[in-house]
Write a structure and sequence with these properties.
Helix Hairpins, 5-stranded mixed β-sheet, binds adenosine-5'-triphosphate, binds magnesium ion, globular, Heat Shock Protein 90
Length: about 280
């Protein structure tokens, strides 16, 4: 009996040991693979996080776009009528003593109108016609305006343009993108004099880069992680639409925006695909 029992136990033990061995081997190879693939996995996780952030930003954009398209037009009509009447009243002599109030009201209406214009530019599925042109030419044309903007707060502009190929661009949008980034740079440096805002263009690998660098106080960490979210602002008179508009414009051009920031200042990098590597470019 004992022999029989031992004989029947033996294969069972062998099977169990076998299973354990297979199990251990599986664990080992899984561990080995995980260890070897660890870096790749964390990079993928990082990409996934970035992708999710971008998706949630786009979702917010879509909601904003729908709201803008629906409401913006309706608000503008009565505003245009009010502005017209105010202008008529300013022309009347019997209101001479309250002229400045009329001017103030018109200014405020224009400000509201500008906000609606920015709002509308976030509208989704906007078709943008792109033309072949050089980013440097747009910057050269904008230079006097940018210089004047910075001089208002006793700061300076430096423009360093390298030779770059033509890109498919929407000039008005690119001007807006540059203006918004420069305005943010100027506002970050406001309060200190003699600082420099530097704009550079250069080729880097398969990308044409536009870099806007300020010597401001840097972006606060809690703002940095949500950068590009509509209505996110730390400024008393800010609307928080400047950067969302920039991200939208970049998306229209299949460009990306990266940020480097610290107590020494902030640099925004707008990276356009080199025309040679962009299948949609002429
Ligand atoms: N160059 C910069 N340096 C420091 N902080 C910045 C910079 N650019 C953006 N920020 C931060 O990001 C926030 C959002 O910027 P965004 O341009 O979208 O809105 P805003 O400048 O506040 O208002 P506006 O609608 O007038 O542009 C700013 O309020 C600021 O806190
Ligand atoms: Mg801004």
């Amino acid at each position: 009996m004992t022999t029989l029992h031992q004989m029947s136990i033996c294969p069972t033990i062998c099977q169990m040991i076998n299973r354990c061995m297979v199990f251990l081997l599986e664990i080992y190879s899984a561990y080995d693979m995980a260890e070897r693939g660890y870096l790749e996995t964390s990079a993928q996780l990082h990409d996934l996080k970035k992708f999710r952030q971008e998706m949630s930003r786009l979702e917010q954009m879509n909601i904003i776009g729908e709201m803008a398209a629906g409401v913006g037009h309706e608000i503008r009509n009565p505003m245009t009528a009010i502005r017209g009447f105010l202008q008529l009243l300013t022309a009347k002599n019997n209101y001479n003593d309250v002229q400045e109030y009329f001017e103030l009201m018109i200014e405020e209406l224009d400000r509201a109108n500008a906000i609606i214009t920015e709002f509308l530019s976030l509208a989704r599925n906007k078709i943008v016609n792109l033309n072949k042109q050089n980013l440097n030419d747009i910057l050269e044309a904008l230079k006097p305006l940018l210089e004047a903007t910075l001089l208002q707060s006793d700061n300076y502009l430096e423009i360093q343009l390298s030779e770059i190929p033509d890109l498919l661009l929407h000039e008005k949008e690119i001007r807006q993108l540059i203006l918004n980034l420069v305005r943010n740079g100027r506002e970050a440096m406001a309060g200190s004099r003699g600082k420099t805002l530097t704009i550079r263009t250069y080729l880097e690998g398969d990308e044409v880069v536009l870099a806007v660098q300020d010597q401001g106080k840097g972006i606060e960490p809690h703002i940095l992680e949500k950068l590009g979210t509509p209505f996110l602002t730390t400024k008393e008179n800010g609307t928080g639409l400047g950067l969302p508009v920039c991200y939208n414009i970049a998306a229209h051009h299949k460009a990306t925006i990266d940020v480097e920031t610290g107590p020494e200042g902030t640099t925004f990098y707008v990276r356009f695909k080199h025309p040679q590597f962009n299948s949609e470019t002429v």
